[in-house]
Amino acid sequence: MRRANGDIGVFQQVMTAGRVVIVTMAICCLLYGLAILLIGQGLFPRSANGSLVCDEHGNVVGSELLAQGFARPENFWPRPSAVDYNASAAGGSNWSPKNPELRGRGRAMAARLGADSGHALPADLATASGSGLDPHITLAAAKYQAERVAAARGLSVATVTGLLERQAVRPGGALTPEPVVNVLQLNLALNRLGKHHE
Fold first, then answer.
1. How far is it, in rounded angstroms, from Cα 76 to Cα 191?
2. Long-range contact list for 118-124, CB < 8 A, 24+ apart?
3. Which pLDDT value is given to residue 1?
4. What distance in Å separates the CA atoms of residue 181 and residue 80, rounded to the nearest whole number?
5. DSSP class per residue in 13-54
6. Of 159, 155, 156, 183, which Cα lies nearest the Cα of 169?
7. How far apart are alpha carbons 104 and 161 in whole angstroms?
8. What is the mean pLDDT of residues 50-67?
9. Contact call for residues 125 and 113 (beta carbons, < 8 A)
10. Predicted confidence (pLDDT) per residue in 136-157, tens digit
């Protein structure tokens, strides 16, 4: 028995719609993704692979885009993190400036950094960034830590400060209000500098 003309029309419409869905998915999901992958790997391989940072032995030690929780006295410390430097859970604390927990964390960090020594503590050493993973601190925040790092590594403050000046960048050019340093790259440079002084 032949199908009614109406049944044939609906069947053809379903088949046509199915073909459109398959072709659209192939273009948008497969071909587009493959094109972006090839362009990224061909033109910007470092960025496409996560801006990874390697030590002198070629071992991956992190990404220049993500902060790590350095805490030893011989290292420069990053900004506090509301997510404990966990890259899978980026986020800020969302605490208001009047929140007692935020003030408590700021006081604890200030005490840890010796802010009561008469030097004003740079704000980025007591406050977390919006992502909790900001890899940079301001040059002022790095200089604030220079004396501690120099003493722990047996280097002169002038040597450490000179390294800071060389590592400082303005990633946004004139739009960056003050120079910043990448904490991971700074600590790796310090390790290399320490080996030259041995």
1. 11
2. 119/144, 124/79
3. 43
4. 15
5. HHHHHHHHHHHHHIIIIIIHHHHHHHHHHHH-HHHHTT-EEE
6. 183
7. 30
8. 88
9. yes
10. 999 999 999 999 999 999 999 9
In order, the DSSP letters of 143-187 are HHHHHHHHHHHT--HHHHHHHHHHH-B-TTGGGSSS-EEEHHHHH
With a CB cutoff of 8 Å and minimum separation 6, the contacts of 116 are: 110
**AA letter at 174:** A
When pLDDT is cut at 50, 70 and 90, the band that residue 94 belongs to is confident
The pLDDT of residue 7 is above 70: no
The predicted model scores a pTM of 0.75
At residue 120, φ and ψ (nearest 5 deg) are: -65, 130
Is residue 79 within 8 A of residue 125, CB to CB? The reply is yes
List CB contacts of 108: < 8 A, sequence separation 6 or more: none
pLDDT tens digits, one per residue of 155-172: 999 999 999 999 999 888
d(CA 101, CA 104): 5
